Amino acid sequence: MEGGILHDIGKIGIPDKVLNKAGPLTTEERKIVRMHPMQGALICEKLKSIRGAIPVIRHHHERIDGTGYPDRLEGEDIPLISRIMTIVDIYDALTTTRSYRKRLPQDVALEIMWDEANKGWWDKGVLREFEKMLKTNGMEPPVESSLTASAFL
What we know:
Number of helices: 8
Shape: globular
Strand content: under 5%
Largest sheet: none
Number of strands: 0
Distance between the termini: 6 Å
Oligomer: single chain
Structural class: mainly alpha
């Protein structure tokens, strides 16, 4: 649960002008943003009570095909809890309004996620279970506020 709440804690080290930028990020800005999983893990690793959250914090941007970051882990080398958090995080990013675009409807978000899963980025089994949970529970993303990952963990 702590991993879901703290997965983006490393973003406290990202300047607001980068974090809230309305347009596309430059190459340098993307490098800065991609540092947040490692920064978050470094912040939290000294806290014994949340040491179990480190894999989620560090690996929630890894991809099944090994093209993610920060460690370029592949497939089963990515902890299951991190693969779950990845799906929740992507869904949240797609279904909430961001500085650079409006929120997407659930069906469009899931279509994009399945497209990316078919490219080898996301765990299809986790995505299948997540979609089933959304539909079984009749869950739609809130209109005005962001979902918290802890709602799904």
